[in-house]
Amino acid sequence: MKNILSIKIEKSLLEQTKEFCRAHGLKQGFFVEKALRSQLDKETLMEDIIELKELRSQEKDASLFNAYLEKRKS
User: Fold this and answer.
1) Within 10 A of 31 (CB to CB), how many other CB atoms are there?
2) What is the pLDDT of residue 62?
3) How far apart are CA 43 and CA 7, in angstroms?
4) pTM as predicted
5) For a tag on the chain, would you pick the N or C end, based on fewer CB atoms within 10 A?
6) Quick one: DSSP state of residue 49?
7) What pLDDT shows up at residue 25?
8) d(CA 52, CA 41)
9) pLDDT digits (tens, 9 = 90+) for 50-62
């Protein structure tokens, strides 16, 4: 089920978004939802990287970063 989110953004950003979506045949809702999801994924990954770096120095047998990411995906 989808919900409605109302936000205030700069007029120029709104116009850029509308034009981009129009030019690429995208619906604005889809585009914004995809952008939010992408940014959340990036922020979560950055938090994970910071946490891993902090904890890795504390534990002698820390797992490799790639192994950690594979385990996190599953």
Assistant:
1) 15
2) 67
3) 20
4) 0.65
5) N
6) H
7) 98
8) 16
9) 998 888 778 777 6
